[in-house]
Amino acid sequence: MTEPGRAPAVERPEAAPAEPQLDLAPDVLTKKRPHSLLKSFNYAIEGVIHVLRRERNMRVHFALATVILVLAFAYDVTKVELMVLLIAISFVLIAEMVNTAVEEMIDVATRGYDPRAKIAKDVAAGAVLVASVVAATIGYLVFVDRIRSPTYHLINEVRAIPANLTIIALALTVIAVIAVKAISGRGTPLSGGIPSGHAALAFGGWMAITLIAADFQHRVLISTLGFLMAFLVAQTRVESGIHTTLEVVAGAVLGTLVTLVLFQTLT
Q1: Which of 3, 11, 55, 96 is catalytic?
Q2: Known catalytic residue: 96?
Q3: What is the pTM of this model?
């Protein structure tokens, strides 16, 4: 019944229930643009640095791998032996990184003790152990006969080929730069942060040129040209805004000291 003079009420249809909104990240809702090659390398090296920061065993493996490679260049191993050593070292490092990734994923997926999670972690750790034992065996078989030779033979072999010392010095400089960046946590492995890797390599190369040309007639001119080239490399890093002056100076000092110490120790 309706009151006289009042229009009858019209029933409105119920609104359809709103569709649930998916809580998606912005990069999922929009088409993702492919990363540049430099960013891809940065992400990959940041993964290596993360493992070096978090895992003590990875730092031990990394240090041992550096020693093995230095010995390989010093003892002049054959190409086949060097390839075998590189494969063995790679297996150990990859196994350690996969082990870390498995542990991280399990910690995210589980909130309490799960025997299956324990088995997965144990199996991943076992893979690292197997790879380490095999790598140690390969290293022993490659170096056992060479290590028996007198120590002076090793020094003379390295000193006779300055290129070997230079390669080792530059490789150690790169490792030192990555280690310092991992400790400081500033910048990315290939761009920014302290120290400047480009400046470290440039001034390490300058120091190697200076020491190699010590007996040359025009050693001063050669060293000066090398220094100017290194200075130009450092200057471009500052002018482009990638590094500050302090970061470039730190890289220059690091590369110079690593190269100088190595040459003075082995020559």
Answers
A1: 96
A2: yes
A3: 0.48
